Amino acid sequence: MESNRFIRRHLLRGLAFVVASITTLVVVAPAAQAYDNGQFEFLYDNGARSGQCLDSNFAGDVYTNPCNWDNQYQRWLVTKTNTTSAIDGHQQYRLKNAATNLYLTQYRVNGPVVFTAPFGSFSSDYQKIDGVGSSWANVTLRSSHSNATNMAPPICVTRYSNAQVYSADCGQPNQHWVLNK
């Protein structure tokens, strides 16, 4: 009888330890998983690399400059969210600049705009980017939130010939990027 009580007590302690360990693992695990860290290089519409990478600064400006792997302002942490696009189910991500810790943000206010901002300083939906493409080797950085809220077409990060980066309706030239790792 005493040995049964001893066994039950140790089994219960062991079970409590396992449950506590699993609970700790679940609580400590991050909600979003980092996907990758790299540079987004602009691709010409024919797929040729441009040598120009998505760049930013502490003021929130977004533009391109010649790619330089050592330039932390051109490095982006790509974090997978737990949501998908309302348009077509593409996975959504957040892009955080490695140097500024600001997030790529797109939305429509008197026209589409793109900039970087602290997380949550605008609706966090504006900081979700749909990774549209068959792989990170040729992807469009699209915000579908503008479509879900006001039925306007989705907007994409667009590079113009003067190295300026804008948001424009998707489907236009100069909207393809490659994630260099």
From TrEMBL:
Keyword Signal: yes
Keywords: Signal
UniProt-listed PROSITE patterns: RICIN_B_LECTIN (PS50231), TAT (PS51318)
SUPFAM superfamilies according to UniProt: Ricin B-like lectins
Lineage top rank: taxon: Bacteria
Keyword Signal: yes
Secretion signal, residue range per the UniProt entry: 1-34
Name this protein carries in UniProt: Uncharacterized protein
